[in-house]
């Protein structure tokens, strides 16, 4: 099996920065998957602007909304990198399974495609996650399981995220290890192992949440991106 690389991101542009670094040579095929946002047109336009001139961009639409009709999900197998947007984690997982996207993601990763995502697009790769898909924050034990344990994006960016996630890991509501990610930070995984944390600001970082709920900062892996890479 090819080495599988994934990027899980808290919020904003960090994951896109990591993606651009990962596929910096030539014009790779990069696919945006905006399922979690209901195929938001604005979100798609921002993705295309971020990769303009750096990649051949594609968008997987499962809603068939104008200006894009429904796209055959098998297109994912031809991509160098797949970038999953934020929104509702629960809706994303439900639609992906209905359309067979979950299995296609697994095949794409096995073939060497880089998988990346932000917010819900980071949650989905894990076995479980903290989500507000149902309104209040709640544990969701329904992820793809490509990465073990549970994820929590927006750790210090939204009220209640840190306290609830640490509590759910400690009481077993969510499986460990817990990976907690600040906004403006991204964790890079190779073959299921966290190898680096890339951030846009030194204050942002990522943590492992231990079984007792304590936070263990992944400082030794951290790399602060130069300003020119996230302008």
UniProtKB/TrEMBL annotation:
Gene Ontology biological-process annotations: proteolysis
Superkingdom per UniProt: Bacteria
Tagged with keyword Transferase: no
Gene3D superfamilies: 3.40.50.880
One Pfam family recorded for the sequence: Peptidase_S51
Keyword S-adenosyl-L-methionine: no
Keywords (A to Z) from UniProt: Hydrolase, Protease, Serine protease
Family label: Belongs to the peptidase S51 family.
Protein name as it appears in the record: Peptidase family S51
Organism of derivation: Brevibacterium siliguriense
């Amino acid at each position: 099996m090819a080495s599988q690389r994934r990027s899980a991101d808290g919020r904003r542009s960090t994951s896109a920065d990591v993606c651009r670094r990962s596929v910096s040579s030539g014009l790779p095929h990069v696919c945006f998957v905006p399922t979690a946002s209901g195929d938001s047109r604005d979100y798609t336009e921002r993705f295309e602007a971020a990769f303009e001139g750096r990649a051949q961009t594609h968008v997987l639409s499962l809603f068939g909304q104008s200006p894009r009709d429904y796209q055959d999900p098998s297109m994912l197998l031809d991509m160098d990198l797949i970038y999953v947007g934020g929104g509702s984690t629960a809706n994303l997982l439900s639609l992906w399974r209905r359309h067979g996207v979950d299995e296609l993601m697994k095949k794409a990763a096995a073939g060497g495609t880089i998988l990346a995502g932000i917010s819900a697009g980071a949650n989905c790769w894990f076995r479980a996650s903290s989500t507000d898909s149902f309104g209040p924050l709640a544990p969701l034990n329904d992820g793809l399981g490509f990465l073990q344990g549970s994820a929590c994006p927006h750790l210090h960016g939204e009220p209640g995220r840190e306290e609830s996630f640490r509590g759910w890991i400690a009481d077993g509501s969510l499986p460990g290890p817990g990976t907690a990610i600040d906004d403006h930070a991204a964790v890079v995984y190779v073959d299921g192992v966290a190898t680096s944390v890339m951030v846009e600001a030194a204050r942002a970082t990522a943590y492992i949440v231990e079984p007792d709920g304590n936070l263990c900062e992944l400082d030794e892996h951290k790399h602060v991106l130069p300003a020119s890479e996230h302008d």
